[in-house]
Specification:
This protein is of the alpha/beta class. The protein has a four-stranded parallel β-sheet with strand order 2-3-1-4, with helices on both faces. Helix 2 packs across helix 3 and helix 5 packs across helix 6. The two termini are 28 Å apart. The relative contact order is 0.23.
Length: 157
């Protein structure tokens, strides 16, 4: 059985999309990225209500992928433990293995990467990036132990 959920967790600029795209290609997975849907639909990336609606639709589709023994990749950032717990528990109810891929980087690196990609309008200020670290719930070793071990894949970010 190939039924697997991969949650790619981290702040903006941490490399989530790069890793998720690599996993998508390597594992013939379906990747769910709200930013891409919002851009395609010409929706403001800062519209949190719409982001939540899109993530709900994506989770509904991801569960269908899992039910069909597929691999789904959630690339939402999942800043809070409660969000990661809900995804893990939902996937486990479907009999799926669940991996957590946590990516981290310093505020300086995140800010440089965000500036280089130039997707945000208006541009994000460094002070905002630094503030994210106060809000983001970094996965603890106890939380990470609740997930299945990732397979042996070679990726570079």
């Amino acid at each position: 059985m190939n039924r697997r959920l991969i949650i790619v967790c981290g702040l903006l600029g941490s490399g989530k999309t790069t890793l998720a795209k690599q996993l998508e290609a390597e594992l013939s997975a379906i990747r769910f990225c709200p930013d891409e849907w919002m851009n395609a639909l010409d929706i403001d990336l800062y519209d949190e209500a719409m982001r939540q609606r899109i993530e709900k639709i994506q989770w509904d589709f991801a569960q269908k992928v899992l039910a069909c023994d597929g691999v789904a990749i959630i690339e939402w950032g999942t800043w809070g433990r409660s969000e990661r717990d809900a995804l893990r528990e939902g996937a486990r109810k479907l009999g799926a293995s669940v991996e957590l891929r946590y990516l981290s980087a310093s505020a300086d690196i995140l800010f440089d990467r965000i500036k280089k990609r130039g997707m945000e309008d208006p541009p994000i200020k460094k002070k905002i990036v630094e503030g994210w670290f106060k809000v983001f719930e970094e996965p603890t070793s106890d939380e990470i132990a609740l997930f299945d071990s990732p397979g042996n894949y070679e990726f570079s970010i």
